[in-house]
Design a protein that fits this description.
This protein is α+β, with helices and mostly antiparallel strands and 136 residues long. It is built from 3 helices and 6 strands. Helices cover 30% and strands 45% of the residues. 18% of the residues are buried. This is SnoaL-like domain-containing protein.
Length: 136
């Protein structure tokens, strides 16, 4: 598979991730992770500590659905670096979400490690942060 084909597939993976959040479909979000990776990890912008392991990550997504409602999302530029059977993906995602009565628009910067399983790229590790600027 060419690098370009992999980049297109990985962008599609990210777009499916965002669409599942907007739909409030946490089962679809969880299904984008490699089912064989019981040691998956996630570091969310809002989290104090990383999440380790499939059960903890599944519980996180279930809880997240009760707190955050994503109303808009768009994947930005995607950079892909393949190393063996793995792909490092760097992107940003512009999203709007609500928590309680408050609405927020943020740009998430995301770094994702993926591998192919059954012909599809799946998440192994993800780390996102919120982009911000210091006022001069």
């Amino acid at each position: 598979m060419s690098h370009e084909d992999s980049a297109i597939q990985l962008r599609t993976l990210l777009e499916r991730y965002v669409a599942a959040f907007i739909a409030g479909d946490m089962n679809s979000v969880k299904a984008l992770w490699d089912p064989d990776a019981s040691d998956r990890t996630y570091i969310g912008a809002e989290l104090e500590r990383p999440i380790f392991g499939a059960p903890a990550l599944d519980a996180y997504y279930d809880e997240l659905a009760t707190v955050f409602v994503v109303t808009e999302g768009k994947v930005g530029d995607v950079a892909v670096r393949k190393v063996g059977g793995l792909a490092y993906v760097v992107t940003h995602i512009d999203c709007v979400f609500k928590t309680g009565t408050q609405k927020f628009a943020v740009r998430l910067r995301a770094t994702i490690l993926s591998r192919k399983r059954d012909g599809e790229w799946r998440f192994l590790h993800a780390h996102d942060s919120i982009q911000w600027k210091l006022e001069s």
